[in-house]
Amino acid sequence: MNAQEYIKTTQEKWHTQYAAEPEFLQVLDEFVESVAPVFEEHPEFVEKNLLQILAIPERIISFRVPWTDDEGNFRVNTGYRVQFSSALGPYKGGLRFHPTVNQSILKFLGFEQIFKNSLTGQPIGGGKGGSDFDPKGKSDNEIMRFAQSFMTELQKFIGPDLDVPAGDIGVGGREIGFLFGQYKKIRGFENGVLTGKPLSYGGSLARTEATGYGAVYFINEMLKTKGEDIAGKRAIISGAGNVAIYAAEKLQQLGATAISVSDSTGYIIDETGIDVALLKDVKEVRRERLTAYAEAKETATYYEGSVWDHDIQADLAIPAATQNEVKLPQAEQLIKNGVKFISEGANMPLDAPATEKLLAADVYIGPAKAANAGGVAVSALEMAQNSQRQSWSFEEVDGMLQDIMKDIYNNAETAAREYGKEGNLIAGANIAGFKKVADAMVSQGLV
Ligand SMILES: NC(=O)C1=CN([C@@H]2O[C@H](COP(=O)(O)OP(=O)(O)OC[C@H]3O[C@@H](n4cnc5c(N)ncnc54)[C@H](O)[C@@H]3O)[C@@H](O)[C@H]2O)C=CC1
Ligand SMILES: O=C(O)CCC(=O)C(=O)O
C-alpha cells in the first residue's frame, strides 16, 4: 500500500471508529493532513502501521471518585488518566477538572501532548487526565475532599519515572497541593510525581508564568520573522486563568497592550490595557467573576457573550480559554478586526473551518502544540530540579524557557519549509513533533 492509500484507509477507519469522539477525531484529521509528506518519505512507517498504532493510547484508566459535599451529601464523579505515549519518556500532561471532561476531550488533549512534549526537546512522553467534577462554587474543603479521593485511586498508576501529572483548566496550585498531600500520605514524599507544585516543596520558579509567557515569546518570534516589533501592538486575549493572566503580563512587559480577558459568561474590554495586578487579585486571590474587575476599574467595560464576536481593532490574538472557542464567524470577525498574528494559548482553540479561513486570509498562526508548550517545558525543568534536589532562579528558568520557545519556533518553521508548506506552522509543528516520536517508536520495536 502506498502512503496516500494508507492514509485514506486509516482516516476512513477512524471516522467510523471514533464517530462518538468528535474532539479526538478533529485532532486526528488535522494531524494526518500535516504529516502525510512524512509517510511519503518513509515507506517503513506505512509498513509498520505507525499511524494506527499511535492513535490508540497505551492505556486509559477510568475510575469512580466518590466524595462528600459540605452538607454531607454523597457525590460521585468520573476520573480519568489517558497514558498516551511513553516513546520519549514518562507520560506527562495536565489534569483538567471541568464538567465537560470526557474521554474524547482527554484523548484529544493527550494526543496533542505527545507532539507538544516532543517539540520541547525534553525527555517526556504524552498523557492527560482529569474529571467531570466542576470546581465552580465549591468550598476549599470540598475541593480538598474531591482531590484526595481522586488521588487515592490515581496514585496506583503514577510516579516520578512513570507518569507525572500537572495542572490544566480547574487545576492550579491549590489543587496540586491537595493532590500532592494525598499522594504523600499513601506513597511517601516523592516530589517529582507532580509538577506545578507550590515553591516550598519542590515547585519551580516561573512554572506559574511559563505557559502565558511562552505563548508571548512564541508570537514575538513570529513577529520578528515578518519584520515587526511587538511593542505598540494591541492584543485580544480570551480566558482569565493561568495562561491568560501571564500572557497579558508578558505582553505589557514587552510594550504591547492586552485589551481584553474573558470567562465562560462574558468579557472585559479595557482599552488602557488590562491591569494585571487587579486581574490576579480578582481571579487568583478572591476567585470572583470578571464583573468585579469592571467594578474596580473605570476604563473597563464588561460585556456578556464571547470576546471573539467583539468589533475592535487589534494586531494580535491569544485565545487562552478552551477548545473550539473560535469558529468560522469569530474567525471572520478577527480578520475584520485586523488581527494578523495568533498564538494559541489554549489547546485547539480554533476549529477546522476557522483555521482554514484565517490561513487563507494570511493570518500567521502559532499552533497550540508549539505556542503553549512553555508550560510543559518548564514542568520538565521542574522534574529535573526535583531529581537534582536543586532549585534554579527565576532568571535561569525564564532564560531556558525563552531558548526553548525560540527553538520550537525555528524547528516548526524549518520543517514547514522543508516539506513544501512554507509559513504553515501548524504543519511544521506536527511534522517536527511527529518525526522524533516515530523514530523512537520504530527503534523501540513498536512496543
Ligand atoms: N495551565 C497550563 O500550564 C496550560 C494550559 N493550557 C491550556 O490553556 C487553556 C486555559 O487553561 P488554564 O489557563 O490553565 O485554565 P484556568 O482554569 O486557569 O483558566 C481557564 C479560563 O478559561 C475560562 N473558560 C473555561 N471554559 C470556558 C468556556 N467554555 N468559554 C469561555 N471561557 C472558558 C475560565 O473562565 C478561565 O478564565 C486550556 O485550553 C488549557 O488546556 C495549555 C498548556 C498549558
Ligand atoms: O505541565 C504539564 O505537565 C502539563 C501542561 C499541559 O497540560 C498542557 O501542555 O496542555
From TrEMBL:
Residues 204-445 form the Glutamate/phenylalanine/leucine/valine/L-tryptophan dehydrogenase C-terminal domain. GO terms for molecular function: glutamate dehydrogenase (NADP+) activity; nucleotide binding. The active site is at K128 (proton donor). Keywords: NAD, Nucleotide-binding, Oxidoreductase. The record marks D168 as: Important for catalysis. NAD(+) binds at T211, N242. It holds the Pfam family ELFV_dehydrog. GO terms for biological process: glutamate biosynthetic process. InterPro entries: Aminoacid_DH-like_N_sf, Glu/Leu/Phe/Val/Trp_DH, Glu/Leu/Phe/Val/Trp_DH_C, Glu/Leu/Phe/Val/Trp_DH_dimer, Glu_DH, Glu_Leu_Phe_Val_DH, NAD(P)-bd_dom_sf, NAD_bind_Glu_DH. CDD domains: NAD_bind_2_Glu_DH. Substrate binds at K92, Q113, K116, G167, S379. GO terms for cellular component: cytosol. Belongs to the Glu/Leu/Phe/Val dehydrogenases family. Homohexamer. This is Glutamate dehydrogenase. It comes from Aerococcus agrisoli. The lineage of its organism: Bacteria, Bacillati, Bacillota, Bacilli, Lactobacillales.
